[in-house]
Amino acid sequence: MGKKSRVKTQKSGSGASAVVSPKETMNLISELLQKCSSAAPSAGKEWEEYVQIRGLVEKICKKQKGMSIVFEGSREDYFPDLMSWAQENGASCDSFTVANFGTEGYGLRATRDIKAEELFLWIPRKMLMTVESAQNSVLGPLYSQDRILQAMGNVTLAFHLLCERANPSSFWQPYIRSLPQEYDTPLFYQQDEVQVLLGTQAVQDVLSQYKNTARQYAYFYKLLQTHPAASKLLLKDSFTFEDYRWAVSSVMTRQNQIPTEDGSRIILALIPVWDMCNHTNGLITTGYNLEDDRCECVALQDYKENEQIYIFYGTRSNAEFVIHSGFFFQDNAHDRVKIKLGVSKSERLYAMKAEVLARAGIPASCIFALHCNEPPISAQLLAFLRVFCMTEEELKDYLFGDRAINKIFTLGKSEFPVSWENEIKLWTFLETRAALLLKTYKTTSQEDRSILEKPDLSLHSRMAIQLHLAEKQILEKASASGRAKRLHFEKKLEEGAPLPVYEESDSALLENTDADAKRPLILRKLEEVEEGQEIQAEEHSHILNGEKAVYVMDMEANGEPVQEETQEKHRKKAKGEHHEPVQANC
Length: 586
Fold this sequence. Notes:
protein-L-histidine N-tele-methyltransferase activity; 40% helix; 586 residues; SETD3
């Protein structure tokens, strides 16, 4: 057990030992920083830029070969120490053990029968790695003087992890040694595997993720070599790109939000043991109990002894799971694809449409989502499309007509069409738009299925093809749904069916249903998070459970770590020993 010694020399191709020149490495780092800090490439040049950045990174990695910290033995060897450490520090570990679930990787196995909603797991604050614990650690002096660390909690956590990993006597060593040494996030893909993602909606985020990570690595490499506050950091002389990539992925697949001790702020944290749980569909069942100052998790469902215990990570699309968690979830009930729509400012009726949309709280141009289930569009997208397809007379009615204010609130309700003609227009638009998006792919769904049957397909390429197929299936369903709805409303128009009219007595239809009201606050708007920047999830809302303030949490509650652009939160670990991208390997 323990760490292997660091090696600061590298073997040349002939087998001779050659000392790596610090100046040579620094020159490459400077070139990388300059390349990653340049203006965004023109449309269609993103892949070319990625290849150039990757080439520089690979040159740097070649010179740093052998310098990273590696723990002896397999990851599984450290699980007993993890569980002992957790129990010694006040965590509950009596109801489960860590087990290997094959294609799903490591997870928690019940050691007794557990009832749904039963509290079976809690982790005290002192075990968590947080931005606060980073500030109070050896990283503190550098944190206090670097604005990037202060502004980006996820980057701080990544460095906190690296600093503690480099310290053999760290309190968190049992946890750190239990983490995967590699992940299945796209940061670990081979170049040809990333290329398979071309054409998917995920690829732009993947390329940006790599560029941002490379830029941050170059920035912090130079900072560690020159800043006085970094002089005592153990990782100063062995800070490799592979180390940073590992730390980034460890945080990206595990981070969550918890409240500070006084409950006044939200900070990022890594939660040992709990982060071993794999994902399934359901509701969020984890919260933070401020009174007892611990993370608590209740069972999502009944579990028999020896069954795997799952939790729900949140309403993530498969693109988000692949990019930030390193797995593809086959039965994802919340899968969706993005669709960017907007009212053209050159359109004659732009001002009127923008005003109606503004009254409904919807931007005139934003990103919506097509969902894998029926209906394929959200209430917000339905409202947008209705306004998008309105005639001048219909717009005037919703701006100045009788009960215009009340009518605005019916825009997202399928029960109250604007007109049969309007419904026909909007569903025709959806049918056509989805069909056009399908034509942008180079392969068909059937061809993707054939590729997935190949036995020699790598894990990462398989995930990429699964993502292609999932996106196409959603678009196919949306187009088919649009056609069915169009035909339905054409029949209504042909029959001269009366149009449903909103009455004051219908106001209950505009309120949340009982089922929705019972859902945790954080869940109620998550399906709308990506659909317009002005629509924000209530990420930090808390609910009261008796006299205890319990913060509802979902895995990856703060977006991609180590990426400057704020994005929707994501969750889960990857890599390890699984061979099929069914779920994450903890």
